Amino acid sequence: MTDSRLQQAIKRYQTAIEQLKTTIDATTDPNHLVADADQTTPPEEVKPQLTPTQILEVLTARDEVQAALADTTQTSGENLAAIAELDKVLKDNAEAIASIRETADWQNSFNPAKEAWWWSLQPEKKPHKFWDQLDWFWSTVSISSLTISLGLVGDISSRFLTGGPDTLGALAVSTQSILTLLTAGGALTLAGQEAYKRTLNRLKIPEQFWHEISAGFSLLLVVGLFGLRLSLPQIATQYSKWGFKNYQEGDWGTAEENYQRAIKLNPDDTLTHFRLGLLYEELQKLDLARTEYQIAVQDNIPDAINNLSRLYILNKNYPAAANLLLKALASEQKLKPSAETKQALLKNLGWVRLMQKHYPDAEAKLLEAIDLQQSAKLTKSIAAPHCLLAQVMEAQKDKKGALKEWETCIQYADITSSTDEDGWVINAQQRLAEPELTIQNSKFKIQK
């Protein structure tokens, strides 16, 4: 095949380039003047405008040249030199061509080949402002911010998804993940960058500000994720409240799930650790309860100290129990336990001393607990000090005093809510059932 078709294509391309160049030169020439037809007014400046039609003519002419080149088996160096010279003129005027905004959508409309570089022609970027010279800095800010964002998303998501997602967790994870992926896609993928540029073009935002805007979005994403990360303790508190409500309603499975979510969101939430310890104790998972109480004790929660000391006593770890109780009672002004909690601390210390066979000290602490519950008019857990005091008096050979305390133990015992008192009541009934004794009341009011 001859190159006659190619020559015709080159001629069309040359004509389109000349018209393009003429229009651009006239637009930029300050001396390009035209007088009015009637010559009644002075000549005024006329600035021809480059049109999308002219640009499309150039681009399609270049397409024809490329197609002719592909079909031509032989061509002359003269033709190739002419094409190269025309391409140079086209590239030199890339800035004027790029100023026509419709070119941003032409690639989607006409779907040119990837090799057709003239359809995506971009002017050589020349920094003309201070902020243009810092584009490298803003790009670094964008990448760094996205890296931090991805780390935060991973950390936050893993916390919310512990034990399976719930509605709040799924919403938090999906929202932050979508925002991060959109921002990352716009910065790191070719398709995302093109969509980002088209959006900014439609918004008529100057190109010299694009890097700054991208960095700004990335920084906003980091700030938002940091805000979410810092709000996790508040969210954890809400989960803990839901768990406590479930616990009070007897829905212990859901309570455990909400407590676990709260702790995952805020491992330092000692109140939730204490509440989870209560739940595990109800479930007779004493080892797990002990672990949760030990964490809560680090924040000096009086009830946690009391409950942990009781578990130590049941495990026959009397020195550890005594150490906890003595420190708590010595720090009463700082801890400010309620009257009910202080009574329990005194009762447990008396129990420890009983098991250690320090009977006088045991008796003193138990009597102090009884005096406190009377002065504070407590109505719960008032049988335990009497049950323990009866055992102390038996150990000291005070049988009459022991029998009196056994009677009081049975009178106020609540075996449905205290496993400790159940065993003590059995002992009391055995003591009071001895031949020389009779029990006046066969029915007892059950209280804790």
UniProtKB/TrEMBL annotation:
Q: Which Gene3D superfamilies match?
A: Tetratricopeptide repeat domain
The answer, when asked if Transferase is one of the entry's keywords, is: no
Q: Which UniProt keywords are listed?
A: TPR repeat
Q: Which organism is it from?
A: Tolypothrix tenuis PCC 7101
Q: Where are the TPR repeats?
A: 236-269
Q: What is this protein called?
A: Tetratricopeptide TPR_2
What the entry lists under SMART domains is as follows: TPR (SM00028)
Q: Which Pfam families match?
A: TPR_11 (PF13414)
- InterPro entries, alphabetized: TPR-like_helical_dom_sf (IPR011990), TPR_rpt (IPR019734)
- Whether Transmembrane helix counts among this entry's keywords is no
Q: Which domain of life is it from?
A: Bacteria
